[in-house]
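Thread: quick sanity check before group meeting

JM: Hey all, I'm pulling together slides for Thursday and realized we never actually wrote out the predicted structure for the chain we discussed last week. Dropping the sequence here so it's in one place. If anyone has concerns about the input, flag it before I start.
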Amino acid sequence: INAEYGDPVTAAMEDDDLFEMEDDASQEAPSPELSPGVMIPNKQVDERSPSGSPGSTARSGNSSVAGSYKSGSFQHFSIKSNCSDGEMPKLSSSIPSGLTPATTSSITQEKKNKEKQASKSPSGPDAEGAVGQGGKGKGAKPKLTKKERREMQERQRAEKAAKGAAKGGGKQQGGKQGGGKQQGKQDAPTQKQEKKAANSVNSTKPSSKVSEKAEAGTDVGKNQIPMFSHLPEYRKLTSADMIATKQSRVHPLVVQLGLRYADGLISGGNARTLALLTVLRQVVEDFQPTVDTEFKPEFFKFLNQQIDFLIKCRPKSIGMGTAISYLKSKVRLLDDNVSTEAARKQLDLAIESFEEERIFFAHKIIANSGCGLIADQGDVILTYGSSHVVEVMLKKAFDEKKEFKVVLIDSRPKFEGRGLLTRLVDHGITCDYVLMSGVSYVMKEVTKVFMGAAGLFSNGSVMSRLGTAVVAMMAASNNLPVIFCCETYKFGDRVQLDSICNNELGDPDELVPVQHGEASGADNTLMDWRDSNDLRLLNLTYDITPVNLVTMVITEVGNLPPTAVPVVIREYHKDLDFH
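JM (edit): ok, ran it. Output follows.
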């Protein structure tokens, strides 16, 4: 036996978790099955045992085999010992067939996990009771299930949260009270959870900054629609803004221009850009650097101050951004040691060149191209709002003796089409004036749609005044060509798919009727909209027309599809400083 199976004493199993000793004398079981032909003391091996059966068992002469080890995949056995107290029978180290190493490790790990769970005491008050009892689990409370422990933790969190709210959100007490180190370690997870719950309760209270704003009397998003809360809210300039202009050396003409921007006295992409260039030319002329300083760095800083004030009055348009980038690029090209007079002359020529080439000359080219698309007789041209380049094109077509009619669509709140209507009628052009609500009824007699644009993006979408997308959609549903007239300096390298992520909020008071006949009775709800918590006014400035609704874009470089915008930007915006 020793030669074939090893010494039973030295080869005893060290892992006691593999077997379970049963000390029940009443249970008797047949002898363990051993390999054929193997003899053990006082016992003859059963020849009927199959090959591959469990290994041999070494026992003393007065010991007998009893009991069996219960397992789902194999059978073990245990030994009933008649030895004296304190002596334990030794088992062979041979592993029964069918018990793989993976199965053995899984059973061992499972039993170890059970022992660890049994050794741990519940947290909270139960843990203190268990620690106070001491000993080997004597007098300890029964083991809680997972569901019971979870309910107890939730109950403790609720109690701690209630205490924290009652104390005004004070700091929670640490886990240093009561118990020793072992108790502190056991209570640590619970204390972290309690602090987390208390902090969640305290976070629901308004912050001090928000409360300060509320006390100051400013409406923080009170009448703002949540979907457009990310956009800068419209506000009028105050005396504090005017005081800040004196501290930041803002030119008086820039202050005047900013106030006109804010009041809406100067509107339209071309008008705003031309006014900006005119003021910047005077700013360059009046700028005088300090003694012993270079013109280039100091003027660059001074220019940024002027632009910041204008943007504070009203967000810049795409065309204004292009003009500002163009001027900054010319400032960067100046020599470091350039004199003040030479720098003024170079910058003045650059501004004049931008006005002539990118605006005035572009209007002439676009007007000539648009006239070629209007028939000599019978065309009905629809336009929306007021666009300077469209106005120049229609007047030129009329001067060329072309017979056509204009349908002008207008909408609230600014009614920009009324000014264009007056100028076209004074020029002798036949016009029909229709509000936006009736555009679907007049679209049947229209042959072409010409509209202006505030900017074009790289993906071909068009940004223009609010309502342009509605007109383009109605025209596309009637299979009419939608043609936009736009200068290339209004092309932007950004991509925009909707008018929600980036837009401009106008004055909400413009939606309140002020003229006679517009109010719906004496009790007008809109007049007191600021005092109502259930009423919000939204006055968007622009909308986005998707590229699939745009038929053609007329520019000074030719008639292009909307998908050609990236090519124009790459070729004609090389000299601009967009950074």
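AS: nice. The radius of gyration is 44 Å. The mean pLDDT is 74.
JM: adding both to the slides.
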